[in-house]
Amino acid sequence: MDGHVRAATADDTLEVRRILDAAMLEPGNVEGRIDAGDVLVAGDQRGGSSGGRERILGTVVLESLEDDPGAHIAAIGVRRRHRGRGIGRTLIEHALERRGRLTARFDTGVRPFYDALGFSVEPIDDRRYRGVVSALE
103: helix, coil or strand? Predict the structure, then answer.
């Protein structure tokens, strides 16, 4: 992915919500998670790297785990026309660097994404899965 990943700020709230709404994801209190530093955004510069405006192309919303330095992926979304460019992978890699261990719950349709990122996956039922990955794996 050409671009950058950073912690979201309050100014990013609308764009984060737009990306998650387009993906039909409901991660809960996005504003509170942004304030806690639990939302990352991936972006690039509109008009190239020579001073254009930043565009947010994807986001991951993390949920802290009790008594665990790791985090649960509450939601991850990438703008439709920018999917398949490594943005989701980059967001997960940055989240893993920050938290050391990630868990996720997801549907069959996105299992290949989590498999490709090295998550250990087990079924919850016939349509849902849970996965975990650690920075040491």
Answer: strand
Helix/strand/coil for 50: coil
pTM over 0.85: yes
pLDDT in tens, the chain (137 residues): 678 999 999 999 999 999 999 999 988 899 999 999 999 999 988 755 555 688 999 999 999 878 777 999 999 999 999 999 999 999 999 999 999 999 999 999 999 999 999 999 999 998 999 999 998 65
Tell me how far apart the alpha carbons of residues 94 and 97 are, in angstroms, rounded to a whole number: 5
Q: Give the sheet arrangement for strand 4-7, strand by strand.
A: 4-7, 39-45, 54-65, 68-78, 101-107, 128-134, 120-123
